Amino acid sequence: MIKLENVSKIYRTKTIETVALNNINLEIAEGEFLSVMGPSGCGKSTMLNIMGLIDEPSEGTISIGPNTIKDYNGKPIAKFRNENLGFIFQSFHLINDLSVIDNVELPLLYRSGISGKERREMAEEALTKVGLKNRMKHFPGQLSGGQKQRVAIARAIVGKPNIILADEPTGNLDSVMGNEIMDILLGLNQNDKTTIIMVTHDETMARKTNRLVRLFDGSQVS
Length: 222
Fold this sequence. Notes:
Layout: E1 2-12, E2 17-28, E3 33-37, H1 44-51, E4 59-64, E5 67-68, H2 75-84, E6 85-89, H3 100-105, H4 116-129, H5 145-157, E7 163-167, H6 175-192, E8 195-199, H7 203-206, E9 211-216, E10 219-220
Parallel strand pairs: 3-8, 3-9, 6-7, 7-8
Antiparallel strand pairs: 1-2, 1-4, 4-5, 9-10
Helix pairs in contact: 4-5, 5-6
C-alpha cells in the first residue's frame, strides 16, 4: 500500500545542513495500523508529511498503491491526496467560524460531481460514525477537546479515504478522551479496513496498533 525506499529529507541553509530523515525503508500493508514513535525532533512528522504528499523527499521514492509519486505539486497530486488520504492533527485544525458539519464537509468541496445534498449526507454519515451527529450545528468553540478531535476524524473520513495519517491524535487529550479517540481509530481500521499511520508519544496507545516503528535522529531503529 505505502512504500518508502531510501527516503531522506535534508534541510539546507547557507551555513547548516539538517538531516530530518536518513535513508528510511518502510513498507506498510493495506489495512495495517502502524504507529511511529521517537523523541521530539527525530523526524516523525516529517515522515508523515512525506507519506501525505505534503512534503517532498530530498532523496528516495515513495509509492502509494501502484503509483510511484514523482510530482508533488499541481492539480493531479492535490486530487490524488483529496481522494485517497485523510489527515488528523493534534491541534484539530478546525475553522472556528464554521459549524461542525461545515467543517466536516470541507474536503468534499474540492471534489467534482458531488452535489450539496450529497455532501451534507456524507458529512452526517461521518459524524454519526464518530458519535457526534447531535452536535453538527454547534461550533468548535462549543465543544470539548475530545469532541473537536471527533470532528477532525469525521472530516478525515468523510471522503472515504484508503489511508489516514494521524499526527498525535490523542496528544492534547486526557487519558479517558484519548482512549475514546483511539477506539474510534481502531474501529475504522478493523471495520472499514482503513490503513492508518499514527505518530504518537504514548506507548500505551502505540501498543494497541498492529506494528510499531521507532525513529531516532532521523533513522529507523526498530
